[in-house]
Amino acid sequence: MAEFVMPMLGADMSAGTLIAWRKQPGDTVTRGDIIAEVHTDKADIEVEVFTSGIVEKLLAEPGQQVPVGTPLAFIREDGKAPVAAAAPERVPPLEPGRLLISPSAKTLAAELGVDLAVVRGSGPGGRIQRRDVEAAAAAVAERPSPPAPPVAVEGEDRQAGMRRAIAAAMARSKREIPHFYLSEAIDMSAATRWLADENLHRPVQERLLPGVLMLKAVALALHEVPELNAVWQGERVVQSEAVHLGVAIFLRGGGLVAPALHDVDGQSLDELMHGFRDLVSRARAGSLRSSELSDPTITVTSLGERGAESVLPIVFPPQVAIVGLGRLVERPWVSEGQVLACPVVTATLAADHRVTDGHRAGAFLTTLARLLQEPDDL
Amino acid sequence: MTDEEIKTTVLRMLGEIAPEADLAGIKPDVDFREQLDLDSMDLLNFVIAVDQELGVDIPESDYPRLGSLDAFVAYLSERLSASAADR
Amino acid sequence: MTTTYREAVRAGMREALEGDERVFLMGEDVGRYGGAFAVSMGLLEEFGPERIRDAPLSESAFVGAGIGAALAGMRPIVEVMTINFSMLALDQVVNNAAALRYMSGGQLSVPLVVRMTTGAGRQLAAQHAHSLEVWYAHVPGIKAVAPATVADAHGMVLAALEDPDPVFIFENAILYPLEGELESDGLPLDRAAVRRTGCDVTLVTYGGSLGKTLEAAETLAGDGVHAEVIDLRSLRPLDLDTVLESVAKTHRVVTVDEGWRTASLAAEIGMQIVERGFDLLDWPPQRVCSAEVPMPYAKHLEDAALPSAERIVSAVRAMVA
Amino acid sequence: MTTKRAPRRPGLELEREHARVLLHQMLRIRRFEEKAAELYSLGKIRGFLHLYIGEEAVGVGAMQVLREDDRIVATYRDHGHALARGLPMGALMAEMYGKANGCSRGHGGSMHFFDVSRRFYGGYAIVGGGLPIAVGLALADAMRGEPSVTACFFGDGAVVEGEFHESMNLAALWRLPVLFLYENNLYAMGTAIERAQAQLDMELRARGYGVPAQVVDGMDVVAVEEATRRGVEAVRNGEGPHLVEFKTYRFRAHSMADPDLYRTKDEIEQWKKQDPIALFDARLREQDLLDDDALAALEREVADELDAAVAFAEAGPWEPVEDLERDVLTQ
């Protein structure tokens, strides 16, 4: 049984809207036939099918917006007898409104924060399986920060379209998480000097990365503003005693995962360095434990040396905040009326306005900056 | 150790750090960190590997010299011959 | 050292007989005839009629006698020619061997080993083709194991004799000519073994079905579906930890079991997976078992009734389609 | 292989002490069973209860000739055998209470008394189920050249079970030291032996396996002892298995649940005239080996032992439910 999935029709396309089916169940199709018409932000495109056979079952209805990669129909390939269905055991009818999903897919959706309402099931009877959730998550993950491109409306110029797209993204987030963003440029001269001197006296294997200083500082800053270190459980926000930082790790083949470093506030820089290295290698080897994915109480993301100067990150549900760290750059810095060249990192806090507000978030960033001036105390 | 031997050793170590990278197609005169999408963690692991296998401790101040492959091989052979001389 | 499954069982028994004078072999035609499946060939000449005892066709009596001798400190190996005849001795197994320790408040232990052949596939028709291991795996107080490899055929006899409680060893008769390595990886008697690793689906099986399951895994690899094959080795206790470890990776499981489908070992395994691993499942646990018929004589019918590599492959394809 | 019928020698001179032992043991069993019936009606003892009243002479007489290293396999009507073998009365009573200080820790109950230290390998509730076990015990001793004999008690129900045929044949075939002790109390629960056995002559059936057999009056404890002695000595001499049939009768129903409608009152009364204890009492008085005072003393001694046994059972602890699955396996 082959699948016809929502094709990728444009470099930055993440989802498409089915306008109409050109084939019905039972129709025979040969490779290259037009099977459907799909609307993307660029245009309405006639979509061809790549397998010859008979349309077995349509899974999406016209008007539905579906992420790229989601199965839209089953095609029974030529020459393949229908899969020998076992004696059709009478399956008790499902009560209406009940979501048909495999237990493992439900667990995964919770871990990756995927909104099941959007996911289309590829299993029997439309049951949602892991791959459906993974496809939906991947579609979301591919654009870490820039909001989805706007849906084109006739007669509008490009700039207005962009603004409308960001508004659409924000509206969607507000419906789920009313983000607000605060940024702070942090003077890193003390920290970089301390680190250079520290690494000079350390054997190579024990060298520290700037990242661990940032992680420890974020963890300690959370002691000042604990409401940011919390997770949603159903309708309630539960503040966490422990500070488990989700560390965003970019996978070389694309995609992102943010497993937890546990109890960062209690760890020494050496312990943190060891934990960080272990987490990165296991993330890239694909051998993370599912608990590591669901443990973080707040996430820290950094695009590293070649990333952007500042990052507007999206909060990972069920957390309530995320810290985005920009690239370390040399900047003119005024200190006591003097202008100096100074290494600077822009830290951005994105937080859930249902849980806290700008005033408290601001306190977090100033504390973070202050802590980084005394690297010895980290 | 000839430059050629240094180069193959370096390429092997880079392969261990970025297993899915396409080492064959690496251009020797362009910054290899860029080509292999190596972040600070990868770089640190690489520097540690160099220290363990070749006994060359690269101070952070020399990191800028880890540009292209050729530049890095030249830097290494210079360091190796220097340490060989004072042995 | 490569040898056959049959010789491996014999080697295990010989080592035991040499090493411990409490050990003796008792069963129909095990002595002069050398065993209905030639497993004990040569042992009579080597150890004499006292320790290689041909028993009359009185399954209840000689299995019961095995239990009695074990109670009195011997380490008997009782060979019941086939599982089909073992039904005549089930009263001794269930009401005595399995219960005496508990009924006596822990005073007695029954260090008895019972070996019997099982399984179909040789056109012997219904009365000589049963696979009833689950009847034994149902009973608390005994252990049940199914050696699927030459190494286990050898190792399990010795491990069973070390065990202070009754151990039933089920040897699928089609395995006797199987060739393989004698040395075992030393897995304890009650642990399952991963015979092939994979990440897309878990195939759980035991005894005579291991070969066809590995064959199915090979075919599936051609489809790009990587099946992990788990050889249960122990039918009681069942090592579900190893199975669940695999299902946690693959999220799909098919159990291949030559017993009849209803109330089979495969049913028990599926149920325990759902009880303990519900959230791991991306698809309901599946079973490939024997058709629910008294095993037919005609080859094409017997082949259709038994689990086959093809039926395993199609069961997996239906899950990953 | 000759078969001898036990000669009945009138007025055999018994030493005083041995006579006292035989009477004392039979009284212990009788009073124990009467107390068990009483406690059953009070709900202290539950489940199945099969009383030995009327058959005491068989258990006591046979047990006299068995040594410490001999092995005993009994049936579910095992109270008499256990007491005669020396299992403590308290441990048996506690077992019927289901207490943890019972001889089987409350796991077996009335039908499954065990005591490995006395080589008492238990009561068996499956009719004939103990026979193959006995053959196995004897096989082990034979293979190790040990002098022990395995005595296996069984009833008229067992002799029509396949396991009786298989066990007799196997024991005879391998000349194993098994003493088959056939307690023929004429009824297998509700089925009289005439309605169950095509051939009643057990001596003849035993000869079919080449096994020498005796038939003896199971109500005469002295005759039982003599016949059993002859049998066990034959077995000890390596002549292979031996069978002794005891003609006996149970004065109570098959079990507490049995309305006992299959026997006539008259028949029961006739047999009660052969009460083994009454017969032996009269015989001892004939030989001035017993008088009222001696009997009264014996009764008191038994009564005290019984009271202590009941107290032991009443005081016994229940096994904690957490130990439910202990001892299913050895480890």
Through-space gap between termini of chain B: 15 Å
User: In the CATH hierarchy, what is the class of chain B?
Assistant: Mainly Alpha
Work out the count of structural domains of chain A: 2
CATH superfamily of the largest domain in chain A: Chloramphenicol acetyltransferase-like domain
Helix content of chain A: 25-40%
Oligomeric description of these chains: heterotetramer
Structural class of chain B: mainly alpha
Query: CATH architecture of chain B, please?
Result: Orthogonal Bundle
Distance between the termini of chain A: 58 Å
Count of beta strands of chain B: 0
The fourth-level CATH homologous superfamily of chain B is ACP-like
Describe this structure in words.
The complex is a heterotetramer of chains A (378), B (87), C (321) and D (331). Chain A has 378 residues and is α+β, with helices and mostly antiparallel strands. Chain A has two domains: 2-141, OB fold (Dihydrolipoamide Acetyltransferase, E2P); 179-377, 2-Layer Sandwich (Chloramphenicol Acetyltransferase), CATH 3.30.559. Helices cover 28% and strands 26% of the residues of chain A. Chain A is built from eight helices and 19 strands. In chain A, strands 9, 12, 15, 16, 17, 18 and 19 form a seven-stranded mixed beta sheet that branches. A four-stranded antiparallel beta sheet of chain A has the order 1-8-6-3, with no helix packed on it. Chain A starts with a strand and ends in a 5-residue tail after the last helix. Chain B has 87 residues and is an all-alpha fold. Helices cover 60% and strands 0% of the residues of chain B. Chain B is built from four helices and no strands. Chain C has 321 residues and is of the alpha/beta class. In chain C, the strands form three sheets. Chain C has a seven-stranded mixed beta sheet with strand order 3-2-4-5-7-6-12, sandwiched between helices. Chain C has a five-stranded mixed beta sheet with strand order 9-11-10-13-14, with helices on both faces. In chain C, strands 1-8 form a two-stranded antiparallel sheet. Chain D is α/β, with parallel strands linked by helices. Chain D is 43% helix and 9% strand. The longest helix of chain D is centred in the first third of the chain and has 26 residues, at 16-41. The interface between C and D is large, with 42 and 48 residues.
